[in-house]
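Quick one:
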Amino acid sequence: MLTLYSYPDLFGVADNNAFGLKVYAFMRLCGLEFDHQHILDTSHAPRGQLPYLSDDNETVGDSDTIITYLKSQYDLQIDRALSPGQQNLDFLVRRTLDDLYWPMSYSRWRDDRYWPAFRDAVLREHADVTASDLEAAREYNDKRYRYQGIGRYEPDQVYARGIGDLRVVADLLGDSGFVFGPEPASIDAAIYGFIANIYFYEIDTPLKAYVLSRPELVRHCRAIHERIARA
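Output:
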């Protein structure tokens, strides 16, 4: 039995972390049967990171590695028709989304304007999470931001960087369909994992304001959200 371990849900999406939601959406789009376990403890995860996948005796970490494993192990056809050029674009978009992760995370854990609302939402929706848990996570993330570099920027610079990433993704999307045509590919699941965690986020950060200003991002996000809800 496939089991996906990822962070808790929030604001109506299945995982409040973009990488876990990316894998969840991919698995739903592919019609895989799996159990979804929401956890905070990363001690059993490869490299101590979520999400991770359990497949009988196999444990796989890292969102891209999980997706590659599932496509190979279960002969999934979702990306089979992609041309070499499309595969390269898929790679570049995923790297852009990896960069977007940092401003997104910063808006929740570091920015004093938005942190209280995020903290209160988690505490309201998850009774098993304590305020001390979140404060410890905030301190940990603050160190990560400084080591990565984003924590050395001014807030306006952080969000300008994230909006730059969002602009590139928005410009790829048309008025209908998905990145490579009328049916979604795995890159659409990846985009959804990030955009849904901004669009459905009930706090008006600069990133959300930009998403709302781009109909392409909203349309794509809602289209994937509806597909995986009925999958």
